[in-house]
Amino acid sequence: MMRVRGARAKARRFTPLLLDDGEHVFADFECVVVAGRAGRPCTGRIKVCSRSLIVDPDAWDTPVTRLPYASMSHMDLSMRSGAPALDVRCRIVVEMKHQGQDTPYVSRESIDDNWKVTLPYSDLGLEFPLIRRLFELRHDVDRADKLAGIVHERVQMAVFDTSAISDIKERLLTPKAVPCNVITPLQQSLSVMMLTDSRLYVQPIVQDAGRTGGSCCVTSHPISKVTEVFRRRYAMRHIGLEVFIGDPQGASVFLAFDDTSVRDSIYEMIAAHANIPGQKSARELADEWSSGVLSNFDYILALNRLSGRSFNDFTAYPVFPWVIADYKSQNLDLSNPDTYRDLSKPMGAVNAERLAKFRERYKEMPDDQPKFLYGTHYSTPGYVVYYLVREQPAYMLTLQGGKFDSPDRLFVSVAETWESCNRNQADVKELIPQFYDVSCTPRFLLESSTFLGQRQDGSAIGAVHLPPWAEGDPRRFVSLLRSALESDHVRQHLNEWIDLVFGFKQRGQEAIDADNVFYHLTYEVCKCLSVCDPAVGLTRLYQGSVDLDSIHSETERQCLLSQIREFGQTPSQLFTEPHPRYQGGERAPHSPVPHSPLKAVPRDNAAAADSASADQIAAMNGTEPLSGQDGSRIAHQYALQRFGVHQGGVTGVVLDPNDSSTVVSVSLDTTLKVFDRNDGRVRRSCRLDDQGFALSCVTMSAKTAVCIAGSWSNRLHVYSVSAGQCIDSVAHAHDDIVTAVDLYDSRLLASASKDASVKRNPGVGVRRFRTDDARNAVWDLRPSGIASTPTHVLMEHESGVVAVRFSDDGLVASVDQDGVVLVWDTRTGCSSHCLTQVHKQPVTGLAWIGVDLATCSIDGTLAIGSVSARRPLHQVALAEPLLSLSIDSRLRLYCGARSGAVHVCNGIDDIPVQTLSGGTGPIVSLATCDDAVVAAVAGDGVVAIWNRLC
Fold first, then answer.
1. Checking CA distances to 368, which of 279, 320, 329, 553 falls within 20 to 30 Å?
2. Region Disordered: what ranges (predicted)?
3. pLDDT tier for residue 64 given thresholds of 50, 70 and 90
4. pTM
5. What's the CATH code, domain 16-156?
6. Which CATH architecture has domain 297-567?
């Protein structure tokens, strides 16, 4: 068996959040850097940016360093060891990401530090003119305009990698690459996009060197999975397009184009080829809400989406109202009208005394200038970051120039924030959707960073102080807020708040009458209105004075964009008449907030299943319709099929991430099988362990059609589905049976064992050669396989590890037989959180639910624990021993039982939904997708599959 090791991709700490506002990356090179006269060579990457050079060292204990052009006194080419070197002298350097953590940036002054940079794999002579040109612009008065020209040049030079197109049969809808910006929170990435009749492709103009599997990092999204497409306003220009992938409340891609016509053209092409329903109008949504079809939360979220608000754009983030006014009582009485905030008034008008001061200032403003009551807004990037600083501290560092805000200005107490919004003349902010998110642990309320400092009274910034009625429980706090939002009182008055934010009181005379006038730059361009203000007589209200398309100077444009980011943006107006009141009718159920709304869309490279001929499997039983038992959530009907795949008991199953109809199973009979769950045909079969030892677990890469299986011989086996053979094996991967394996982003492999260890290996890096059909890929086996030694070994467990799982953020959770759950950071190899004493008997399964962890046990209990709070949150008894655990995209937990049943529970609150019966033996492994549950049945070689009917 041929075995050639591939080089491990080094973890990178650079993210676009480290860039200055409006800064772009133009190039990225592997480099060797020497800093100072006595400095030692340091390998890493160097980013050539519009305002600085940024060095990202390979050494984790060396910070990422920014060298601003404005601080450079010298730049030239010199020779070092016979190779050209970039010679830079810089008075001030900025150090970031110490030990990979989001710590405040450190500006270090020195007497012209000398930096020498060489590019071992690039021609510095070819790249130097661009770097020198950027350096010479550092003090140019027309710098902004000239940088805009360079940006245009670089975008025009970008060439789309056509080899990334999944299928040569795809028909191009865009004849050439279309320039765009990918918009994510506080970031924009210069990119190009291509659209075919099957997929949407997006490629950054600078490739991410931290990725493996080639230099290209094209992201692709199947048009068939597009659920919604919205035209968006970005920076007060109608140039944005947001494409929602999969779940309508899930992830999305936000693109900003050069002009409206290009945006509209792309919109029409996607809409024509995607099977999506027509977009409902604001009036249709209002009718559904007023008749009880939509809940309050769903309706507010829909209006935000329709008016151009997006989780990807902090200048236009979804806005939700304060609904509770009582943050002091021991008990919250939702039947008392005094508990609630007056929704007929904007936040700035809730306090009559403060409103009088606003009105007085408004009256004294000169008539020849745009008048306003509130110099700030109810939604700005600063307010979003204010609420999210614990969950995403990097956002505040980006917005505040590398510093956290003063500890006394941070989000410390809900009651204090409410008081500030009622009394402070510079504070009229509303809330964000996370305050009503009951689908996961509210991380934005929990202590997460040790770098936020201390207040003047000496108290450290920890978790947010909650009102007494929350009883110190963030989940209870959010749950009560959600109940208040959906209460009858709010339902009867929500139309009044909608009139202010999205409706007819947003602009003109009605806005003046409602004390709802904000700074003029928060409104997009519209016709100026002559209106009569009873308080001050006739005046002109210049609402809507932002028209970026009419500004040709890049300097002026950037200045206006900075003001937009400072003051926020008023939503697009949806209603010009009073919003209808709630008319009664059956109340809509409360639906969960989209889980992890800031989560980026994962890459979806098309990888295909093999269609080689194999033996037909005979189903042991016919299709058996099953009706789920009634529960507190919707149950579904399933049809059960059983396939006799193996000669020995099945020990592990996994679904192909790119084709959920393909099942991979491993067994005590030492074989791995690949078969179709629809027609029962075996497409691949391989005996992996040549010593005759049983296989114990399996996982599969989403990008390379490669499976990794653990063995009782302590080995890890790598099997290529495309090649149909084992391409690598790691002997003595552990000192005992390999009990669990999991992959992250097809790059990192975690394995666990009865020897109480957890190891992290670089993932399988294989090189793909294209044939005429990209779905039948051929793999060069020479660089494939797993590194000979793990990068990290965790030895903190004291009993055998039974499960290991990666989170969406790349954290690893492992659980041992004693029920100890450890969460550790793969970058450092150090455990960061620990959960203990969750169950009374051995734990058998583990799954991530966002930032929380679910575990099941032989004692028949299913528990959800908070990682950050280090304690269990919910627990339910299912009355029989549980052996396995899985979760689907709808946040439903599936528990495999010793009896052969699968218990389905709601992952938000552990409430049982239904029980799937019919398994012929203990369920030791589970795999789930939206329309099926696949179970490994111990003892008889059977894989049981429950296919969802409705």
1. 553
2. 572-593
3. very high
4. 0.67
5. 2.30.29.30
6. Orthogonal Bundle (1.10)
